[in-house]
Amino acid sequence: MRVQVLKTCCALFFSIFSLTVLAQRSVYSQAELDSIYKDIKSNLENTESNLIKIDNAINSIEKIVNDTIAGDFYHKFANLRQNMGHWDSISKQIHQEGYNRTEASGDVCKQVVSLFNLTRFALFQDNQNLLDLAKHGMVLANECGELKHIAHAQSYLGAAHLNAANYKNALRNLIDSEKNYTKIDDSIGIAMVNLDLAIVYSNLQEDEKSIASTKKAALIYKAAGRDLNYAVALIDMCSSYLDIKETDSVIKYLPIAHKIVENRHQLANAYVYQHYGNLNIQQQKYDEAIKNLNRGLEVNKNIDDRGLNTNLFNFLVSAYEAKKLPDSAYVYALKSDSVSRSIGNNYERLNSLITLAKASHSIGKNKQSHDAFLNYIELKDSLLGEEKLKEVAALEKFYEAEKRENQIKIQKQENDLLSAKNRAANTRNIALLVTLLLLGSIAYALINKFRLRATKQKAITKVKELENDNLNQKIEYQKRELASKALHIAQKNEMLHELKSDLNKLKKDSNTNEVNHLINKLRFDKQIDDNWEQFTTQFMEMNPDFFKRITELYEDLTKNDIRLIALLKMKFDTNTIASLLNISTEGVKKARYRLRKKLNLSSDENLEKHIMSF
Q1: pTM score of the predicted model
Q2: Looking at the 3D structure of the chain, how many domains does it have?
Q3: Does the chain have fewer CB atoms within 10 Å around its N or its C terminus?
Q4: Residue 214 falls within a domain, yes or no?
C-alpha cells in the first residue's frame, strides 16, 4: 500500500515538474513551434498541459522577425484554442496580433487571409463588427485579385448580411461566391456557401431550396471524406426537416450525425440534442424531450453559446407546457428572457418575450404577462418600423439616382440649346456682315431672319416640353409616395388584426380584466385617423380641382365618403379598399351603395366612371 502511494506521489511530482519546466521555457525555434503545433493538433483535448504549451508558443512567436511567418503562427495557435472550445477574448487577441504582424508585412494577399481569421471569430462569437470586417475583407480581396480570395470574401460578406437579417444582400453575395468557387473548382468552398444559402432560403420560407442546398453540401463533404463537416451539414438539414415536421427524415439522418460529432465537436453535439428534443416534442414524447434538451444545456456549458441556450430554454418551455407543468415552464421562460436580453438579438428577443407572456399567464402572473406582451408589441412594431425605414431609404436612393439622371439629361439638352443659340447668333452676325458688304444680299438676310425665328420658336417649344416632363415626373413621384402611404396603412391594419387575433385566443383561456385591458390598448383609432388625414390631405393637394367640383355638387359627403372616393379614384380593388379602411369586403359594398345614393346615380350608371369624369 505504501509502495503504491509512493509511486503515485512520484508520478504527481513528475507531472508538476514537467509542467513547471514547460512553463519556464521562454523561446522556441520555428521548427519547435511547428512540432508543438502538430503535437497539439493531433490530440485536441482541453487540458491544462495543452494550454500551457500554447501560452509558451505565443511568447516565442513575438521573437520571430519575419512578420508573415509570425502572423501565420499566431493564427494557427489561436485556432487550436478555438478547436479546444476556447472562443474567448484571448483567442480573439491572438488573432488580432496575427493580423497586425501580417498587415505590417505589406503583402495584401497574405493580409486578406489573415483578416479571414478575425472575420470567422466575429461570425461565430462576436457579431458586433462582423459586417465591417467582411466589407474590409472584400476590399482587400479585390486588391489582391486572386479569385479564391474574392470567393471567400463574398461568402463572409453573405454570412454577415445573413446575420443582420438582410437576406437580399446575403443571397446575392453567396450566389456570387458559389459561382467563383465553381470557376476554380473548389468543391469545399461550394459546400460551405451552400450551408449559408440553406439558412437564407429557410428564412425566406423556401424550405425545398433550403433542404436541397444542405444536401448538396453534405454530399460534397461526404465525397471529400470530411466526416465532421458532413455531420454538421446533416444537422443543418435536420433543422430544415423539423421546420416542416418531416420527422422520418430526421430519424434517418440525425443519429448518423450524432455518432460522428459526439466526442469531437461540442457545439454540434449540443445542437444534436436540441434537434432530438424538438423531434421528441413533435412525437409527443415529452419526458424524453426534456432529457435531451437538458443534455444539450449540459454540453453547451463549456461553450456558452447564448443563442443556443435561448433556443433550448424555449423548447423546454414547450415540453413542460405540453406536460401540463406550467410552473416548470415558467422557470425556463424566465431563463430564456434573461439570456435573450443579454444577447441583444431582436428576433430571439421576440421569441423569448412571447414565450414569457404565455408562460406567466398560465400560472396567473397576469401583470408580468401583460408587461411581456406590451414589450413584444413594442419591439415588433419597432422592427416593422425599421424595415419600413429601410424600404423608404432604398426608394429615396432610387429616386435620387433617377433625379440625378434626369438632371444630367436636362443639362445636356440645355447645352444643346445653348449651342444652337450660339450657332444661330454666329449665322446672324455673318448675315449682317454680308448685308453691309453686299447690298445685293438683302434677300439672303431676310431668309436667314425667318430661319432664326423658327429656331427660336423650336427652342421655346423644347423648353416647354422639358418643363412638362419635369412636372409629369413630379406627379409620378407623388403618386408612388401616395401608394406607399396606403401600403403602410394596410400593413399596419394587418399587424393589428394579427395581434388582436392572438390576444383573443389567449382570452379564451382567461376572463381576467388585464387581458381585456390589453385588447383595449390595441385600439389605435386616433393614430389610424391621423394617417388617413395625411393621406387625404396629400391626395387633395394632388387633385384640387377634382375635390372642389365634387364637394360643390354634393355637400353632404362625409370624411369616410371622401376616403372611399379617393381610393376609387386611385383604382384600388374591393379587397385592397377593405384592408385600407379596416373593414370587410361586405362593408365596402355597403359603403359603395351609400355613396351611389348620395351621388344620385341610377342602377345603370357606373360609380367609378362617374368619379373619373370629374
Answers
A1: 0.53
A2: 1
A3: N
A4: no
